[in-house]
Specification:
290 residues; alpha/beta; 5-stranded mixed beta sheet; two-stranded antiparallel sheet; 7 strands; disordered N terminus
């Protein structure tokens, strides 16, 4: 990311920018990690994450009261505000530190441009699964529209497939009531994608929520709404099959690959399908923590 023209995935480059690599020897490390008064830190208005769970914030606040802040917050000099800092990564820690009454926090200062800041914030949150589907899609849209990135370049930067980026962007065209269901967790991203191109997504979303339909059932409902032939859709039974189908969809969304789960009485197998060696290499890297 520091090399503006380089498109990297979730590898060592982002860890170094976020201050998670091993500290440098000599005077450079002393200059880049410092204590800053908490009132000099400002949130980034382009931070992809908008919603912070109250329970998570409270838990982190208690941890900071007991043990302090264990990892520096990544900041840059605040544009237009000499002597102040803009948060690049670590806003949740900053919010919790304020609650805990902390007066100063350790920060890692980097000279970063607006594109770097948006990409790092997006990758940090995607890597930690901290964004809801609409926050993620909005960040992808900003990278494409404000900074001229292609869907392929965005996919490479965040370690997702291009189809995942395209499907995420489709969620932004959903009507407001459907987006509210999505934000509240009543619909998953898989549900929302299933009805995105249907004639009346609002009605379908209400039916999915009221009848507690699985993603597969939502897809069948959307096909029926578009006049395609399919079996009648019944309310989701509380069985392991519907749970494993939902889990397979969640894994597929996270990896950008086709996932199938075959479960028989608590035992079974997971089938991951890839289309080329690049996808296989990416999967191996992510599973090995590379």
């Amino acid at each position: 990311m520091a090399e503006t023209n380089s498109r990297r995935g979730l590898g060592r480059g982002i860890s170094a920018l976020m201050g998670e690599s091993e500290p440098l020897a000599g005077p450079v490390a002393a200059e880049t990690v410092r204590e800053a008064p908490i009132e000099l830190l400002r949130r980034n208005p382009d931070q992809p994450r908008r919603h912070f769970e109250e329970a998570d914030l409270e838990e982190l606040t208690n941890s900071i009261r007991e043990k302090g802040i264990l990892q520096p917050i990544l900041v840059r000099p605040a544009p237009g505000a000499p002597g102040e800092y803009q948060i690049v990564a670590g806003e949740r820690r900053w919010r919790a530190a304020q609650r805990a009454g902390v007066r100063s926090i350790p920060v890692t200062v980097r000279e970063l441009n607006d594109l770097d800041v948006l990409e790092i914030g997006l990758i940090e949150n995607v890597q930690r699964a901290d964004l809801n589907a609409l926050e993620e899609a909005s960040a992808y849209k900003a990278l494409i529209e404000r900074f001229g990135r292609t869907q392929e370049a965005v996919a490479q930067a965040v370690g997702k497939s291009r189809s995942h980026i395209a499907n995420s962007l489709r969620l932004l065209s959903l009507p407001e009531p459907v987006r509210e269901h999505l934000m509240a967790g009543r619909l998953s991203a898989g549900h929302a994608r299933a009805i995105a191109s249907a004639p009346d997504p609002n009605t379908l979303a209400k039916a999915i929520v009221d009848r507690d339909l699985s993603v597969r059932q939502a897809e069948a409902l959307a096909r029926q709404a578009q006049g395609e032939r399919s079996a009648p859709v019944r309310s989701r039974p509380r069985t392991e099959s519907s749970d494993t189908a939902a889990l397979a969809q969640d894994l597929s969304d996270a990896l950008g690959l086709k996932i199938e789960i075959a479960d028989k009485g608590g035992r079974g197998e997971i089938l991951i399908k890839y289309r080329n060696l690049d996808q296989l290499d990416d999967l191996c890297r992510r599973l090995s923590g590379g």
